[in-house]
Design brief:
Chain lengths: 351, 240
């Protein structure tokens, strides 16, 4: 080992490593890009019902991606995915009715506020992973359901809860000015999904993402690298909360008003299970989780089979995923495409 | 220089370390002992993962136990683990950069350090390879590079050569020899591998059942009948 002349041209510099990480994070998911493009091309031909259903799927996918980041990147099991989306919806409705700000501003504010709430909710679990955090999130999901079932979502009234009384007309949250129709709103949501995925990828391949990767190995490994585990974990809660806030705002914008019955804690449990089945490691897994959550039951319904059967199928799929496919359907698809790619390379070299 | 004074660790009724005291001052030192001797527990105490019920630990005049684990990294402590701890979804360079991230360094300094350590460990050509694609030796090298890049004062290597082939082991020994800056930093190797300890450690401490058996120059320690009896399973003359 002799002395080395220090050069930064030929080998990795931190800037080059960071740039490459971001590039990989954004372009190394052709499946996700293809999935979104396929939806953009095909969904407009499916009719109004399916356009609304796929819009809902995309909205759920944003929340599912937050759950997936916590589960796969930090080993944290969040059982409040749907409840956090509901909280985002509540904040969006309250902000919209109280301020009348443009949709985009409400979207950003909702993401920020939901992120802060998620951070505060996660504070007791900063030094823990596993059961305590999961129980905490489940309790939150149950508490949120109790509150919104009894109080309801804001509908244009005054006071903290924003509920109308008497014969006053209930107000709906308007959609963005540029996306009033169902199809336009579908494309609007599609763009927001792409932006959320890109933003989270930048985070995952940055200094913070590297810290999360170390925390996933173990707290000890992370601390030995000088990482403040609690602080890094708090930022993950905030990211997942922010994504849920975006999803909640889009959901509220999609239907104009929200119903507490949609935010049963069992729905949060179901979403977590679907994230595991679909694959928590990649964005395509989040899209598949959204598909299974909203589109698959609708397909069953359209075939004359009750959508509730889907829950039984998901249970079997969860067992299958745990036993044979820990990276979920998305992982299996990635392996399949990698095998096909290798095969094609081999054939090309032979020729 | 590292100084351990009266360290006692208790896990319930079990005491893996009992009033342990010794001092090591070579550039590369060893800590050996049979399984259950308390070696890894002591490393975890120095790293901040285990809090002793009594005692003090100093390195280069600084009381380590007063600092939180992550603050010890900023002070200048780095460590490896028995099984290399590499993030599979990060590249080699990212796995190394992790140790630089918490340090407030100018960009040029970060670049220089990363470039240097990747070149010295021979990892530069594989800087962008994902962790999951690395073999066992490369994973060891990445962990060693991560230890080195922050230019620590105290480097703790927990069984660094475990499972390596002879050629890989020789390469690793060269890299470990290049780690410390004389008078400014030291390496403490925790290992069962007596040959490795004998080859590169100036001073060595021997533990057994959480207490010190011997401490001094490696040659003297390894020749000590008590060490040979306790660690190498040999009997002193006149005993049966």
């Amino acid at each position: 080992m002799g002395a080395h002349k220090l050069t930064t041209d030929s080998i990795a510099t931190p800037a080059a490593v960071q740039a490459r990480a971001w590039r990989d994070g954004l372009v190394a998911y052709p499946g996700t890009v293809a999935f979104l493009l396929l939806m953009a091309i095909a969904v407009p031909f499916l009719g109004a019902f399916w356009v609304r259903t796929f819009t809902a799927m995309l909205i759920i996918a944003i929340g599912a991606w937050g759950v997936a980041i916590l589960q796969a990147r930090l080993g944290l099991v969040s059982l409040a995915g749907i409840a956090m989306i509901g909280l985002g919806g509540w904040i969006a409705l309250r902000l919209n009715h109280a301020t009348g700000l443009p949709f985009e501003v409400v979207l950003i504010l909702t993401a920020a506020i939901t992120a802060m709430v998620a951070l505060v909710l996660g504070l007791p679990a900063l030094r823990h992973r596993g059961l305590l955090y999961s129980l905490l999130t489940l309790m939150f999901a149950a508490a949120f359901h109790v509150i919104v079932s009894s109080v309801g979502f804001p509908d244009g009234g005054s006071g903290f809860w924003g509920r109308v009384t008497g014969s006053t007309q209930r107000m709906l949250m308007p959609r963005p000015a540029i996306a009033q129709g169902h199809l336009a709103y579908f494309f609007y949501v599609l763009v927001v999904v792409a932006l959320c995925f890109a933003f989270s990828q930048v985070m995952l391949r940055s200094r913070l993402g590297r810290a999360w990767a170390m925390i996933r190995i173990s707290d000890s490994v992370a601390q030995s690298c000088g990482i403040r585990v609690g602080w890094a974990r708090a930022k993950a809660f905030a990211l997942a909360g922010g994504l849920a806030g975006v999803a909640g705002c889009l959901w509220a914008g999609s239907v104009g008003q929200l119903d507490g019955r949609s935010f049963d804690p069992l729905q949060s449990l179901l979403l977590f299970g679907l994230v595991v089945v679909a694959g928590p490691w990649s964005m395509i897994g989040a899209l598949l989780a959204g598909f299974l959550y909203r589109v698959f039951p609708a397909i069953l319904d359209s075939l004359g089979v009750t959508g509730h059967v889907a829950t039984m199928i998901f249970g079997a799929a969860l067992i299958h995923a745990i036993v044979t496919a820990p990276r979920g359907i998305a992982g299996q698809l990635e392996d399949l495409f990698a095998a096909i790619s290798r095969r094609l390379d081999t054939e090309r070299k032979r020729q | 220089m590292i100084r351990i004074k009266g360290i006692t660790v208790a896990f319930g009724g079990v005491k893996p370390l009992r009033e342990l005291s010794f001092q090591l001052s070579g550039a590369i030192c060893g800590l050996i002992g049979p399984n259950g001797a308390g070696k890894t527990t002591l490393v975890n105490v120095l790293s901040g993962f285990v809090t002793p019920v009594a005692g003090e630990a100093e390195a280069f005049g600084t009381r380590l136990l007063d600092m939180r684990p992550e603050a010890r990294h900023a002070w200048g402590l780095a460590r490896s683990f028995q099984t290399p701890q590499i993030a599979d979804d990060l590249s080699v360079a990212e796995n190394v950069m992790v140790a630089l991230d918490p340090l407030s360094l100018p960009g040029a300094e970060r670049s220089q350090r990363l470039a240097m350590v990747l070149a010295e460990t021979g990892l530069a050509p594989r800087a962008h390879v994902q962790g999951r694609r690395l073999d066992g030796f490369d994973r060891r090298l990445v962990e060693l590079a991560r230890c080195k890049v922050s230019r620590p004062r105290l480097i703790l290597l927990d069984e660094p050569a475990a499972g390596l082939a002879a050629t890989e082991r020789a390469q690793l020994i060269d890299l470990i020899r290049a780690l410390p800056v004389p008078g400014e930093s030291m390496v403490l190797i925790i290992d069962h591998d007596i040959d490795l300890i004998a080859a590169i450690c100036e001073q060595t401490a021997v533990l057994d059942f959480g207490t010190l058996v011997a401490c001094g120059t490696t040659r003297d320690v390894l020749a000590d009948p008590k060490v040979r009896a306790a660690y190498l399973g040999e009997f002193e003359e006149g005993t049966s």
